[in-house]
Amino acid sequence: MTAARSTRESADSKDSKDSKDSKDSKDADDFDVEEALALVKGAGARPPGEPGRADGAALSPRETDRTAVPVPDAQDSGKGAHAHHRSTPWPEARAVAERAARSLPSRTPVSVPLETSLGLVLAAPLTALTDLPSFDTSAMDGWAVAGPGPWDVREDGVLAGHAEPERLSDGEAVRIATGARVPRDATAVLRSEHGRLDDKGRLHASGAQAPGSARSRGIPAIAHGQDIRPRGQECRSGDQLLPLGVLVTPAVLGLAAAAGYDTLAVVPRPRAEVLVLGDELLTEGLPREGLIRDALGPMLPPWLRALGAEVVAVRRLGDDAKALHRAITGSRADLIVTTGGTAGGPVDHVHPTLRRIGAELLVDGVKVRPGHPMLLARTREDQYLVGLPGNPLAAVSGLLTLAEPLLRTLAGRAAPEAYTLPLKEAVQGHPYDTRIVPVSLRGDRVAPLHYNGPAMLRGIAASDALAVVPPGGARAGQELELIDLPWATAGIDACFV
């Protein structure tokens, strides 16, 4: 379901409207009644139900992840102290998702053709199958020469792709093309712009009888091996070119092809299935009569592909509990992603369905705004479900918090290195929770963007990254951790293969 059908997400939607109306003043957030009271009391107080020991100390990350959270009964779902008690701190929620993926057995590598391996991860080291280059090669167009000049020039020439040419005798030269095999006994390649033919057809190094004179005119002396790429210059057969775990980029494809590969051993893409929930969603046309356009159905599949997944299906289920049960129990995907229905409203069926099938709830709410009603569950020994809130930006927050670390780990990708940049201006924060805010790059700083309410996509569509704002907010000049958007660093085509 979406924001219109749950108390929690309705509050988010109202604040999204407030954000648009006051976009030139304060940044919006999805504060509900509980959060408003917390603001009055001050950010230093612990919110109701904050996890802690009997002595008042906060639980350590290890303790918060010691056991899975049981799927709650209906009366415990939604807002209030129970929901806040279950919520996991944002950094720990991401770590739980990554550990969940690592707990699965190692995935069996697959062999795929080069043309379908882009974006996958090497499951074995890339080892040279031949010397590179595999024969002495001309690095320039010109003449292959033997010994000191001048040289008698043969009538024939040597082109790339031809068989081994005749060997050269001392004092001989032959026209040669870039990439062609150098004749045996050739001592150098003289570039076309550095050679001239006299009226008898003999080849001379241009403008120089002595190396000193050549250098004085900017023409290099002819050195032994000049402009010849010797066999094995880049690697020898059996050398390791790249270790396992490397992402297959266009450059890796080129190297693999040059080294003689037709196929690559890679980690298979994790399979993901998207279940779009909500009776009020339209797939085309303008919103009308209480119905709204579905933004997540079009947005999530390419985003999941950018995170390394193979999207095997997108199903629109409406608010049908039986259909949701059938879809989850019948799915063979590694990851099921649901949209909406994660709170405690009358048609929020995700929690009851997970309870019905005996799923293990690993994360039930995250201390992050927007998107805190997100969840992560183990539905089978080899399958997970990420429940995203129905509001679009809240869903993006859930995607990057829970789905990204899980899919990245399943796909064998390395975690991106964390980095920070200073803020151009102050950002309002939540008193207790992390806040995720779209930002744009402004030189060596980042500027927070307006239209960043939980139901809004206008801000993130114009953003370069997402900033992680700590509880309490951040001042101008403060360094904040940034989360890159896949297309901001890899290019549109490269990240959606």
Explained architecture:
The two termini are 29 Å apart. The N terminus is likely disordered. The chain has 497 residues and is of the alpha/beta class. The strands form seven sheets. Strands 1, 21, 24, 25, 26, 27 and 28 form a seven-stranded mixed sheet that branches.
Topology of helices and strands:
Layout: H1 7-21, H2 33-41, H3 61-64, H4 81-86, E1 88-89, H5 90-102, E2 110-113, E3 121-122, E4 126-127, E5 137-138, E6 142-145, E7 151-158, E8 172-176, E9 188-191, E10 195-197, E11 202-205, H6 211-216, E12 228-229, E13 240-242, H7 250-258, E14 263-267, E15 271-277, E16 281-282, E17 292-293, H8 296-306, E18 310-318, H9 321-330, E19 335-339, H10 350-357, E20 360-364, E21 366-369, E22 375-380, E23 383-388, H11 392-410, E24 419-422, E25 434-442, E26 445-448, H12 458-461, E27 465-469, E28 479-484, H13 486-490, H14 492-495
Parallel strand pairs: 1-21, 7-8, 15-18, 15-19, 16-17, 19-23, 21-25
Antiparallel strand pairs: 2-14, 3-14, 4-13, 5-12, 6-8, 6-9, 7-11, 10-11, 20-22, 22-23, 24-28, 25-26, 25-27, 27-28
Helix pairs in contact: 5-11, 9-10
Question: Any descriptors?
Answer:
alpha/beta; six-stranded mixed sheet; elongated
- The total of helices stands at 14
Structural class based on helices, strands and sheet pairing: alpha/beta
Termini, distance in Å?
29 Å
- What is the average per-residue confidence, as pLDDT, rounded to a whole number? 82
Strand content: 15-25%
> Helix fraction?
10-25%
Number of strands: 28
The radius of gyration over CA amounts to: 31 Å
The profile of the biggest β sheet is: 7 strands, mixed
